[in-house]
Fold this protein.
Amino acid sequence: MKTTSTPCQINPAAESIAIGPLTIDFLITRENSGGSIAAFELTVPGKQRLMAPAHSHDHYEETIYGVSGVVTFTVDGTPFDIGPGQTLCIPRGAIHRFDNFGDEAARALCVVTPAEIGPEYFRDIHEVMVASAGGPPDKAKLAAVMLRHGLTPSAPPGAAG
């Protein structure tokens, strides 16, 4: 009979991080799962566009499960409206972003496998947003944080690259 080294508990991470109008509620981190999974709930208010650039990640998949409202994930140029009970798996290397074009807030469960991203990334992004004092965030600082945490920012359409 095998015993686990980490005791089971409900919502072991239990950390909420606000980034501008977005809220990220971490449920499980790599420390809670032996590195196999990270899970967080994302809340996006109505009529909210993502301020960070579209991006990709080469080291993990991200699966989105709609909880309430509708959040639109654009993956490699194709929009996918994710509503309650719907699931979308974003493969490694796919360029993606999300927006809420509806009037009501949207909530989605985001599952990252393996757990290559955690609350540290969102805390660092939060710091960049706070430093912008309500203005547009410093794009170079956002990109630096993204790269440090394994996300590759995508060049805007029409940009030289």
Q: What stands out?
A: The helical segments are 30-33, 119-131, 139-148. Residues 157-161 have pLDDT under 50 and may be disordered. Residues 70 and 80 are 10 Å apart (CA to CA). The chain has three helices and twelve strands.
